[in-house]
Amino acid sequence: MNPGKLNQRIVLKKRGEQRNDYGESQDIWTDLAKVWAEVTALRGYERTEAYLADARSSWRLVIRKIPGITTALRVQHGSRVLEVKSALPIGTSAFIELICEAVE
How far apart are CA 37 and CA 5, in angstroms? Predict the structure, then answer.
């Protein structure tokens, strides 16, 4: 892996919990880390089923290994929010490949 390809800034976010004014629990996403990544669009598709439109896109991100990377995270890339579907090390290198899907 060429570290020079890590040329886009992303924010890794973890889920947290917060109480609202009524005492109800609400999910919030807080920043875990800001890192450099190689971001590649894999595929996108649209389907219409029962008159409902569904559009999704998949993304591959490569980042340097840092502790705490799991599929429970989300990624913010500009205005796009991605849900991490898999997080696997790339061989024995110091990098992790994240396969993500856009959150609508």
Answer: 8
Residue pLDDT, tens place only, 8-23: 999 999 999 888 888 8
CATH class of 3-102: mainly beta
Cα separation, 95 vs 7, in Å, equals 14
Q: Give per-residue burial for 11-37: e unless 16+ CB within 10 Å, then b.
A: bbbeeeeeeeeeeeeeeeeeebeebeb
Sign (positive/negative) of CA torsion 39, 44, 50, 53?
positive
Q: How confident is the model at residue 55 (pLDDT cuts 50, 70, 90)?
A: low
Q: Are 77 and 39 in contact (CB under 8 A)?
A: yes
Which residue from 27, 9, 28, 13 is spatially nearest to 83, judged by alpha carbons?
13
